[in-house]
Design a protein that fits this description.
Elements: E1 6-11, H1 17-22, E2 27-33, H2 43-52, E3 57-58, E4 75-79, H3 105-114, E5 121-127, H4 140-151, E6 154-162, E7 173-181, H5 185-192, H6 195-202, H7 204-208, E8 211-213, E9 218-221, H8 226-232, E10 245-249, E11 252-256, E12 258-260, H9 289-296, E13 299-304, E14 310-315, E15 346-349, E16 352-355, H10 358-364, H11 379-388, H12 392-409
Parallel strand pairs: 1-2, 1-4, 2-3, 4-5
Antiparallel strand pairs: 5-7, 6-7, 6-10, 8-12, 9-11, 10-11, 13-14, 15-16
Helix pairs in contact: 4-8
C-alpha cells in the first residue's frame, strides 16, 4: 500500500502554511477554510486562493459551515486561535456543554463529533501559552481540550517546539499536537509501547525532532466531564501541570520536560537577507534613528494602573540592530510599516540600518519567496500574515514522519 495519498482538511488556513508543508509529502488538501472575522476584505483568503486555487476553498465563518459540506478526510489540520475554552452548561440539557460562541476550538470539536467517518489523524498547532492559560486556573484550557479529544476517542501527543533549536531560521516557539483515533493501528501501538519511549524516541514528534528527557514523567488526572474540568481544574495550583512534552491516551495524561537533541546545520538571520536588492522605503530615516534607539533600549516608565496606583514598568534593552549570526527573533503581526517600534527587526546593511522586507519575513517562516505578493495586498499586510503564520519546515518534517508511521503501521 505504498504511496497512498492522505486527504487533508485545513482549517484556519491563513495563507496556507500547513498545506505548503504537508503537500511536499503524500498529502492532498481536499478542503480548506479561512475566515477573518474582523475585516471586511478577506486578504489571507485571497492569497490562499491565488496560490492554491478557489476550488474546495471556503471563505466563510467555520462555525456556520454545516459538517456535511466538509468532505471526509484522513487528517484534520490547523493552527487554531488560543481563546477561552471553558464550557457552559444549560440547565435543561446537562450534556449541552458547548463552549462560548466564536471560540474556534468548538468548531473543530463539532466536526470531529458529527463526522461519521472521523478523521483518523489530527495535526494542530497553537501558541505555547495554551499549556498554561488562563492565569487563574493554569492549564485548564488545555485540560478541556485534551478531555474533549479523549471523549471523542483520540490519543494525543504534544510538544513545544522552537524552530531555531532544530536549525530553522527563526526562534518561534509553538505547541504542536498529533491526534490518533482509536480505530488506527498507531493508537494500538501506543497502548503497547512504553509511554516514555513514545515521547522521547519512538513517537511521531520524537522521531522528527529528537530530544533528551530532563525530568521524571508526571501523571495528570483529568477528573470529570468538561464542565467539571472548567470549574475545578487546578483551582489552587500556581503552575500548570502540563510540561513541554506529553501524551494523552485513554484518559491518562503523561507529561515531562524534554530538551532538543539536534546536531545538524543551523540557519541564521544573515542567511536569508536580500542584500543589494532592497528598496529605499525599508531603510531607517536618520530623523527616526533616535526614536528606534530609545524604543529598543532599556528604560523604566512610570505608569498608572486601572485602580489608580502609580507603578514603575521596566523594559530591558534589546539587541539592536538584530544579530545576523543567530536565528531571528519571533516575527509578530505588527512587523510591517515604517513606524519605529521595539519589536520590529532592524538589520545592518552596506547602506545603513533597515527593516526586513516581505520576502525576508517569508523566508524566516520558510515560505516560498513572494508567496504573499498579490495586487491589493500591502507590505504591512504581508508582514501581518507572517506574524500569524508558522514555520513551514516544522510542518513538513512532522508531516513526513507521520506519513512514515502511518505507512509502517496501517498499511503494513
Amino acid at each position: 500500500m505504498e504511496n497512498k495519498t492522505l486527504k487533508v482538511v485545513e482549517l484556519f488556513a491563513g495563507v496556507g502554511g500547513f498545506r505548503l508543508g504537508l503537500e511536499k509529502s503524500n498529502y492532498k488538501v481536499v478542503w480548506s477554510n479561512q475566515w477573518e472575522p474582523s475585516t471586511k476584505k478577506q486578504h489571507a483568503s485571497m492569497v490562499y486562493e491565488a496560490r492554491f486555487g478557489k476550488e474546495n476553498h471556503s471563505n466563510q465563518d467555520i462555525a456556520t459551515v454545516p459538517t456535511d459540506e466538509i468532505p471526509d478526510h484522513d487528517v484534520l489540520c490547523g493552527g487554531f486561535p488560543c481563546q477561552d475554552y471553558s464550557v457552559a452548561t444549560t440547565l435543561n440539557n446537562s450534556k449541552g456543554l458547548k463552549g462560548k460562541k466564536g471560540v474556534l476550538w468548538w468548531s473543530i470539536h463539532r466536526i470531529l463529533e458529527e463526522k461519521k467517518n472521523k478523521p483518523k489523524y489530527l495535526f494542530l498547532e497553537n501558541v505555547d501559552r495554551l499549556l498554561k492559560s488562563p492565569a487563574k486556573q493554569r492549564g485548564r484550557d488545555f485540560a478541556v481540550m485534551l478531555q474533549s479529544l479523549n471523549e471523542l476517542g483520540y490519543a494525543v501527543e504534544w510538544r513545544v517546539i522552537n524552530a531555531a533549536e532544530y536549525g530553522m531560521p527563526q526562534r518561534r516557539r509553538r505547541v504542536f499536537f498529533i491526534g490518533y483515533h482509536k480505530s488506527t493501528e498507531i493508537y494500538k501501538q501506543i497502548l503497547k509501547t512504553d509511554k516514555i519511549d513514545w515521547l522521547t524516541k519512538q513517537g511521531t514528534i520524537a522521531s522528527t525532532f529528537p530530544v533528551t528527557k530532563t525530568n521524571p514523567i508526571q501523571e495528570v488526572q483529568l477528573k470529570g466531564d468538561l464542565v467539571e474540568i472548567t470549574n475545578n481544574f487546578n483551582k489552587t495550583g500556581k503552575l500548570s501541570p502540563f510540561q513541554n512534552t506529553g501524551l494523552l491516551i485513554k484518559g491518562k495524561v503523561l507529561t515531562t520536560n524534554t530538551k532538543p537533541n539536534y546536531d545538524g546545520d543551523y540557519m541564521v538571520l544573515g542567511d536569508i537577507l536580500q542584500n543589494g536588492e532592497v528598496t529605499s522605503e525599508f531603510f531607517i530615516d536618520e530623523k527616526d534613528q533616535e526614536k528606534w534607539e530609545y524604543l529598543k533600549g532599556s528604560k523604566t516608565i512610570e505608569r498608572i494602573s486601572s485602580e489608580g496606583h502609580k507603578y514603575k514598568y521596566s523594559e530591558g534593552g534589546m539587541i539592536y540592530p538584530d544579530a545576523l549570526d543567530n536565528a531571528s527573533r519571533t516575527i509578530i503581526t505588527g512587523e510591517g510599516g515604517k513606524t519605529p517600534s521595539r519589536f520590529k527587526h532592524v538589520v545592518t546593511s552596506d547602506r545603513g540600518l533597515r527593516r526586513l522586507t516581505p520576502i525576508e519575513l517569508e523566508r524566516l517562516n520558510m515560505f516560498p519567496d513572494n508567496h504573499t505578493k498579490l495586487e491589493g495586498i500591502t507590505d504591512t499586510k504581508r508582514a501581518f500574515f507572517m506574524g500569524n503564520a508558522l514555520v513551514v519546515g516544522v510542518i513538513e518534517k512532522i508531516g513526513e514522519e507521520l506519513y512514515k508511521q502511518i505507512n509502517q503501521f496501517e498499511y503494513a
